Amino acid sequence: FKGGDTCEYLLSSGRFLGEKVWQPHSCMMHKYKNSEAKNCLIDKHIVFIGDSRIRQLFYSFIKLINPQVKEEGIKHGNIPFEDKSASIKVDFLWYPEVNGSMRQRIKSWTEGSVAKPHIIVVGAATWSIKIHNGSNEALAQYKINITSIAPLLEKLAISSDVYWVLQDPVYEDMLSESRKMITNEKIDAYNEAAVRILNSSSRNSKAKVKVFSVSKLIAQETIMKSADGLHLPESSRDTSAMILMNVYCNKIMKPIDGSCCQPQPPLTLIQKIAFCFFTLSIIGYLIISLIHRNNYRKNKSCTDLESGEEKKPAVSTPNVSTLEMLLHCFCKLGLIMTYFYLCDRANLFMKENKFYTHSSFFIPIIYILVLGVFYTENTKETKVLNREQTDEWKGWMQLVILIYHISGASTFLPVYMHIRVLVAAYLFQTGYGHFSYFWIKGDFGVYRVCQVLFRLNFLVVVLCIVMDRPYQFYYFVPLVTVWFMIIYATLALWPQIVQKKANGNCLWHFGLLLKLICLLTCIYFLSYSQGAFEKIFSFWPLSKCFELNGNVYEWWFRWKLDRYVVFHGMLFAFIYLALQKRQMISEGKGDPLFSNRVSNVLLFISIVSFLMYSIWASSCKNKTECNELHPSVSVVQILAFILIRNIPGYVRSVYSSFFAWFGKISLELFICQYHIWLAADTKGILVLIPGYPMFNVLVSTFIFVCVAHEISQITNDLAQIVVPKDNSTLLKRLLCIAGFFSGLHFFSAMQDQSRH
């Protein structure tokens, strides 16, 4: 750990991921759009001073503001650029040598009331080498001239951002005869002189000229593609321009995926309160543990001096009290949340951009599939979608989604479309599981609802507080929470139709189907009425939960993307349970689900449907168009998978304990990945061990899985305490929870007011 100045890393070090993606050492670089660049540079004056290579950088920079700009300016003269809409002024000043003329121009900005540029980018040397035929006298004069300019640049650096661009290497074999004297040896000598002289008088001062040396590293990789051996290819100078934009704009725009040059965000009021709470919990747990330890020592068995026999303690060690269990849970949670904060909010660990390659996605997929098959065991029961099977399904889907996220595979559309089916399958299980429970058990009590809501939302609420993120940011949890409440409302509202009642009269089945049709109608209406949807979720307090960046559009998009699949899950559960009740399916160990002929036909149709969907998803060309079709067709592959997995008796009778283990903590894995496996709110990758990518992934994955498992245990323990079965106690706890959220809203309002 060399400190938190990621700007220095951005300006001086990095490597290429593939051919075109530049990865700065230790931090993430944001790719600025034209609108973002304009917002950052509004009312700013930027000046580029130097030779033809600085002119190239100037053009790449202004193309970030206006991509329509053409390189038609005077080659050996000044070139102005102005964007009147944002009042941005960018000038290129032709000074190919570091001499008296350049010094005079720089000096004019340090004197009197002349307006100083906000950003100054300077660099020159190749002309001096060329004109003086690479003589040592020219180098000596360069040192004298840069020594006279350095104090002026340092003076300007007090109020402006000043960058000295080191000279890029050349490709000597391609240089024309008139440039043969420009050698890499000479360039290195000029660069060494510039670095040694600049900032020599202000080493302990904050007003420093920033040395832009990273372009040298970029050029070393790309100069072979140069047209003349001297000037860089367009992609390389575009990278340098983007680095310049990141250095200046990241601290202003604060992009999530631009961690370079961003200061550590200050602790909010709510974060400070959370820190105090967890600290008190740790102290409280330690005090209680010490008291219990002392009591245990006092009650420990001792030897009777008269008989020489061992005495038993008069009082047995008491069971762990509710308070101690509560403090123990919060103690562990506090330590875990400290790790979360250090990983993704403090500038302690490094972060890097994702870079997708087919091998980085498919090789881990093959590896975990082999592991999963290796851990095959017999199921306890052989019903369709039994508990072991659904845990297995959740587990392998979650592992595939994790690999998808860390490899950056969302850029490859066929993979994206298949992952969308996996997310839909989670929601399908939500519809299937909750419908089956309410239909069979008929339990619509408050206890059941509170248990489910607590288990789904506990971790996310804690992360919203500790990581200072809105609830909607963890979009999947709001999604399953809302769908659970919709399923509950559909079945709990009058008339309550459950299996026991329907068995007495078949007409109740039609009543339930009518309820499901009404639900489908409401879903269809809301999906095509964005205005009505946004009005519903814009009312307080729903707006506090579902707004992201000041509106609920993101929530509408996420809900709309898988709008029918929960309904499909409910309908499948209804049909399956009806067939099961009438003994129309065979679920014995080793038996096919239907008769041999029907099973074979359904299996063939399922395999064909599964493959047809994959072919369609792989042929997708436009993400928007495919997303429009996805809600209606995703159920095809989900149902095909269920039938393939359950029709053959042997396949239904076994499961992978490896995948099932991960399935039991799938929700925690999905949420925890945001901050302690990925980084910058999933935009990048957390780097605990720099320089060793594979070893880093192994270590961070091990910690990540352990933390997710521990949080799952903590959630289960706290659920028993916070949501008791006794109704009167539960009511008191609900009032306490309401008070907690009221206090949270109050402090949140105070926070917002102080920010404004």
Q: What is the tally of helical segments? A: 29
Roughly what percent helix? 55-70%
Question: What is the domain tally?
Answer: 3
Shape: elongated
Please state the average pLDDT score.
Answer: 92
Strand percentage lies at: 5-15%
Between the first and last Cα atoms, what is the distance in angstroms?
35 Å
Unreliable parts: 302-318
What is the makeup of the main sheet? 6 strands, mixed
Question: Describe it for me?
Answer:
- Helices cover 61% and strands 8% of the residues.
- It has a six-stranded mixed sheet, sandwiched between helices. It has a three-stranded antiparallel sheet with strand order 11-15-14.
- The two termini are 35 Å apart.
- It is of the alpha/beta class and 756 residues long.
Topology:
Layout: H1 6-12, E1 14-17, E2 21-24, H2 34-41, E3 45-50, H3 52-65, E4 79-83, E5 88-94, H4 100-110, E6 119-123, H5 126-131, H6 136-156, E7 161-165, H7 184-197, E8 210-212, H8 214-222, H9 234-253, H10 269-298, E9 302-303, E10 310-311, H11 322-344, E11 350-353, H12 358-374, E12 376-378, H13 387-407, H14 413-441, H15 446-466, H16 476-492, H17 499-504, H18 507-527, H19 530-538, H20 542-546, H21 553-561, H22 565-581, H23 596-618, H24 623-646, H25 649-652, E13 654-656, H26 657-664, H27 666-676, E14 678-679, E15 684-687, H28 693-722, H29 727-755
Parallel strand pairs: 3-5, 3-6, 6-7, 7-8
Antiparallel strand pairs: 1-2, 4-5, 9-10, 11-15, 12-13, 14-15
GO cellular component, one term: Golgi membrane
Pfam families: Cas1_AcylT, NXPE4_C
Transmembrane segments: 269-291, 325-343, 355-375, 396-417, 452-468, 474-494, 506-526, 561-579, 600-617, 659-679, 685-709, 730-750
